[in-house]
């Protein structure tokens, strides 16, 4: 199996539905409405996806819940041949996003990461992530969580959530704060907000990577800028197809972007929500665009070079 590097995975978004259902039952929380008849997460569009996502986070209430979640997620990723993952961690879903609670949650997640590394040989690094539709004030709190816990494991700061709410510049304080703390930066853009949101993000925030970014394809000058500036796109094709960002795999712009010299990488985003895994992403890319083992080797090389880990970790993974 090809050893895979994944740069864009939301920890809570990777929670298997059965895991969340069992946790909800243990705590007598009724979230039955978020599942379909087969027990999968059920939503009709992106707005509903975000609501179901937040409801699925409700039973995650203690550091121990996050320890168990991290173990379950990393075990699954390792089975897919993933050797290195960067996970978006949201203090907003860990005790409400205040720094005091975050101090308790992070060690539990790291403890699970150590255990998974020892047992399954998979390496995890964390990216603290603000949720855009919770607003710039909450994002400041999140950035303070990130700045306080920044180190060689907690290596990044990011922005996810509803991209059409607010503008990237609203989050400049948070990104500057994280940058000053030595964190590497990424932001979701160009999933829903169009090429202009990718441009606005690059203009307003000192990011090295963009989450998704696929709508940049509509603006040839922007595609050139991405290629020239060496911005890495964390592309999640299966997510884009499932959520309706593109109508089908054949219409996905990942191959065009790659052919234009943009650094593209492949990730799953929130795998159980989109009925995907890293192996399925690779299989569909191979079927749709004829990508071979050599292509995937090159793709993983690009991903590892753009990873937010230190060079010693990068060398160990390579
Ligand atoms: N959070 C989890 N998945 C997301 C996505 N695809 N877009 C924006 N925010 C998210
Ligand atoms: Zn995402």
Brief account:
With 318 residues, the protein is an alpha/beta fold.
Tell me what you see in this structure.
The protein is α/β, with parallel strands linked by helices. The protein has 13 helices and eight strands. The chain has helices spanning 17-26, 46-57, 63-79, 99-120, 136-149, 172-180, 195-204, 220-229, 237-243, 254-259, 278-289, 293-306, 311-317; strands spanning 4-10, 82-89, 123-131, 154-160, 184-189, 209-212, 232-235, 263-266. Strands 1-2-3-4-5-6-7-8 form an eight-stranded parallel β-sheet, with helices on both faces. α3 packs parallel to α4 (99-120), α4 crosses α5 (136-149) and α5 runs parallel beside α6. Zinc ion binds at residues 8, 10, 160, 188, 211, 269. Adenine (ADE) is lined by residues 10, 13, 53, 160-161, 188, 191, 239, 269-270.
List keywords for this structure.
single chain; 318 residues; alpha/beta; 8-stranded parallel sheet; 13 helices; 47% helix; binds adenine; binds zinc ion
């Amino acid at each position: 199996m090809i050893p895979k590097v994944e740069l864009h995975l939301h920890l809570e978004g990777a929670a298997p539905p059965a895991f969340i259902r069992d946790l909800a039952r243990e705590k007598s929380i009724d979230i039955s409405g978020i599942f379909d008849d087969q027990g999968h997460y059920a939503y009709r569009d992106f707005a509903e996806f975000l609501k179901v996502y937040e409801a699925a986070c409700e039973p995650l209430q203690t550091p121990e819940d996050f320890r168990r979640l991290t173990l379950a997620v990393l075990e699954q990723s390792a089975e897919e041949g993933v050797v290195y993952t960067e996970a978006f961690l949201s203090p907003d879903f860990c005790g409400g996003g205040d720094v005091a609670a975050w101090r308790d949650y992070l060690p539990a997640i790291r403890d699970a990461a150590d255990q998974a590394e020892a047992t399954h040989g998979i390496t995890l690094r964390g990216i603290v992530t603000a949720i855009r539709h919770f607003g710039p004030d909450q994002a400041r709190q999140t950035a303070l969580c990130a700045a306080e816990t920044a180190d060689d494991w907690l290596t990044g700061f990011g922005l996810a959530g509803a991209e059409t709410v607010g503008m990237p510049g609203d989050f400049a304080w948070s990104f500057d704060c994280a940058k000053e703390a030595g964190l590497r930066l990424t932001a979701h853009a160009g999933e829903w907000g169009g090429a202009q949101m990718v441009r606005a993000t690059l203009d307003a925030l000192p990011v090295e990577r963009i989450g998704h970014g696929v709508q940049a394809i509509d603006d040839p000058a922007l595609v050139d800028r991405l290629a020239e500036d060496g911005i890495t796109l964390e592309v999640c094709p299966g997510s884009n197809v499932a959520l309706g960002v593109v109508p089908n795999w054949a219409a996905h712009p990942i191959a065009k972007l790659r052919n234009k010299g943009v650094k593209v990488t492949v990730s799953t985003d929130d795998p159980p929500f989109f009925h995907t895994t890293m192996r399925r992403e690779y299989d569909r890319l191979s079927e749709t665009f004829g990508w071979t083992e050599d292509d995937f080797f090159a793709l993983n090389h690009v991903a590892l070079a753009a990873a937010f880990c230190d060079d010693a970790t990068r060398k160990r993974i390579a």
